[in-house]
Amino acid sequence: MSGILVTGVGIISAIGNSVNENRASLINKVSGISALSLFNTRYAGLRPCGEIKIETEQLKHLLNAFEKGVTRSSLLGLHAFMEAVADAGLSTRQLQHPGTALIGASTVGGMCLTDELYHDANRDDEGSAYLSSYDCASVNLYLQEKFGIGGIVNTINTACSSSANAIMYGARLLQQGYADIAIVGGTDSLAKFTINGFNALHILSPEHCAPFDRDRKGLNLGEAAAFLVLERGENIKGKKVYAQLTGYGNSNDAFHPSSLSDEGDGPYLAMLQALSVAGMEPSAISFINAHGTATENNDIVESEAMIRLFSRVPSFASTKGNTGHTLGAAAAIEAVYSILNLTHQEIYPALNFKNAIEGKGLVPVQEYQKTAVKNVMSNSFGFGGNCSSLIFSTA
Amino acid sequence: MDLEEIVVHLFSPPRNTSTNLTTTTGSNFKSQISNHFMFIHYNNCISTQQTFEKTDLEILHETVDNKLKAIEPSYEGIPPGILRRMGKAVRMGVGCALPALQEASQANGIIIGTANGGMEDCIRFLNQIIDYEEGMLTPGNFVQSTPNAIAAQLGLMTRNKQYNITHVHRGLAFENALLDAMMKLRELPDAIYLLAAVDEISDYNYNIDYLDGWYKKEPVKSKDLYSASTTGSLAGEGAATFIVNNREANAVACIKGIQTLHTTNENTVKQACSEFLSKHLKPGEKPDICITGENGDSRMLKYYSAVESVFDEATTIARFKHMSGEFPTASAIALWLACNLHSLPAHCIKKQGTVKHAENIIIYNHYKGSQHAFIWVQRLEKIKPGLH
Hints:
Largest sheet of chain A: 10 strands, mixed
Largest sheet of chain B: 11 strands, mixed
CATH topology of the largest domain in chain A: Peroxisomal Thiolase, Chain A, domain 1
Order of helices and strands of chain A: EHEEHHHEHHEHEHEEHEHEHHEEEE
Distance between the termini of chain B: 70 Å
Oligomer: heterodimer
Structural class of chain A: alpha/beta
Order of helices and strands of chain B: HHEHHEHHHEHEHEEHEHEHHEEE
Shape of chain A: globular
Number of helices of chain A: 12
Shape of chain B: globular
Largest interface: A-B, 99 and 91 residues
Strand content of chain B: 15-25%
Number of domains of chain B: 2
CATH architecture of the largest domain in chain A: 3-Layer(aba) Sandwich
Strand order of the largest sheet of chain A: 5-4-6-7-1-8-14-13-9-10
Radius of gyration of chain A: 19 Å
CATH architecture of the largest domain in chain B: 3-Layer(aba) Sandwich
Number of strands of chain B: 11
Distance between the termini of chain A: 13 Å
Radius of gyration of chain B: 22 Å
């Protein structure tokens, strides 16, 4: 794989509204998990979430985005998109060029408006302002229209691994010459739909989540958006470069609609394939940004898959304790964190860990470390057995 | 968090201002894309017409309440216990693809395009949330409602642990899946992929799109779709599946090019059509047939007229939405038709061209006037077309 470079990054999550704020929170062990205060659900006090504490109306004012039917998911996406595009120094003309692709992921899309969707779908009245905004594609179609993105535009939904696949698709468009610039990422906002869905599956924790801890009680949902600007090496010419995307893998666990197999074939094969695309031995990986949702199933299976693949499991941690599980945005925000690992040569600690999982014995990094980081693997595994893994390397 | 800081951050100039904008845009963008031909072998379709088992497109199955509902097979390959739990989109998608995966059990991946996946399950779960005020809910509908449930179920049922992906980009979900398959076959030249598309009409997405003005308000029969001068179309649904690889031997058809674009300007569409043709056709070569997604919506006609004006008297103009109804991945049904063109019936022909073969076919479709796509298909079976 030759030269897919990251030239811009943008992110908004429960631990900050910019790349710099997110980094500061990761260094300082800040958790964005809290009782819901902006979002109306009966689980507000019962299931803590990684909520971005800016009201939707406030986001519209901040971003000067008052289009009819714009949703919170689109606004979060817009926030991260603008940061990434400004960071990479892309001009309007470049955005509108047929060589500029926009590949995003979302699992919630406009379904964050659960009540409006209910009324529209059941045709209770004349129809709300959001009739064209409910699907997953609505976010990227909004960004496409707003900026006149000229190239290939796509939306991917593979549940919790969605944005890893968006990043992968964008990289492949670049490699095959279907794009010169690929803006890739994902966005999801909190929704009654997902809170109730995950709660019905009994995997929402009543406490702050504790990835890879023996006594973990499930995940906390979060909301976030992140975009990366990817370009081919030969087009860069003196531009600032954060990192390279060197490997990617996609595999299906083919075991169960909503849980992973004990052996973790999907996670194992996704990581293995990413290494193979990167042309790396497992020992080349300096650090793993694990999926680590803190569900009973994910963390034990991911541990098993890491043990299977690595003769010595590298340093690893999960940032879900900071941000919550942000679903379709998770792989994109964690791609940004992996890139920060590389550019600043530092590792951010996992929160809330006390005891290793019995029989696995894996202990995540618990303190901030300045250390040599050359290749970071970032894992994302989703419902439907959709497993993906990315490798970012120093530029 | 200080809001002013956010604003300053968002609108501040990029940190690195030395970027040379002209070099990054590049002027030779298109020349970098070398043509890649992807061959279609097995293909299968569940649609609102008789398109599986004994395909018969001469008898036009009509709308009921302005909806064209899929004619479904008995799904013998799916265990009854699993079948009962499947929503319609999952059932059609899996049922259409399973026979294909039996033909290609070692598929290197499952690539699906669906705008909405299991919309009915989605809204059923939503109704539970609201009606029971977020009380004790059962997760079944939630799990089935995620659009990736179709590709996931196929992976699960065929124990396929390879590449598995779901494209959901509304009216270009199938086109992106198709492009994904083409890219995969350049990366792994010996591979074989399952490429499929599916979308369902549920009462719920019908209601949403009806309120948004995308379906006709007055009753319209399928055969009268194109003569209606009103806005909106007829609702449709369906699934189509293709086994694709790089091998020409025994192939039914070949995908020679695809171009997608987002615009609401018909002149841009027309220009894109001309460029697409000049890129893919040799000088003097003319497409035999252009299959368009004309859908009876008076507001959308301008795009189809613009595209049709690019072709001269040689090219036959055909339509299919009176058979399939309108839905985001309907272009997959058009591709299936192109693969099975020997049975293209008279009611599909808008304008009979002078060219008598049916070899080079352009599919032009758009969804809701903003997502457009051109697909160039070459039929490889030299069967005389049934153009009456």
